Amino acid sequence: MLSRLLKEHQAKQNERKELQERRRREAIAAATSLTEALVDHLNVGVAQAYVNQRKLDHEVKTLQVQAGQFSKQTAQWISMVEGFNQALKEIGDVENWARSIEMDMRTIATALELC
Q1: Is pTM beyond 0.85 here?
Q2: pLDDT digits (tens, 9 = 90+) for 66-91
Q3: Alpha-carbon distance 76 to 45, whole Å?
Q4: Measured in Å, how far apart are the chain's first and last C-alpha atoms?
Q5: CA 75, CA 71: separation in Å to the nearest integer?
Q6: CA angle 12, 5, 24 (to 5 degrees)
Q7: What is the DSSP-derived secondary structure letter of residue 33?
Q8: How far apart are CA 103 and CA 109, in angstroms?
Q9: pLDDT in tens, 11-24
């Protein structure tokens, strides 16, 4: 009888150990699955951030090139405007010179007419 109780007790302990071991394996599997799902979710975000960063880098390079081209074009425009301003000044100078000569010629003509 004592032997039978001991065997029953040992059998129940073995069942409990097997149940506990099975639950432990299930818990480990669930934790692993959860960890993999979380890592996969994070990797998607990281991958998207990486793609976005590459796009931004490309856009920055394009913008730098365009800014350089715009700067050169602006410098050309400034040079053209300065040349135009200089030409206008010269025209103004020639006009003033022509008026001065005209006034001198009129003065001379008037003096000659009076003589």
Answers
A1: no
A2: 999 999 999 999 999 999 889 888 88
A3: 46
A4: 167
A5: 6
A6: 10
A7: H
A8: 10
A9: 999 999 999 999 99
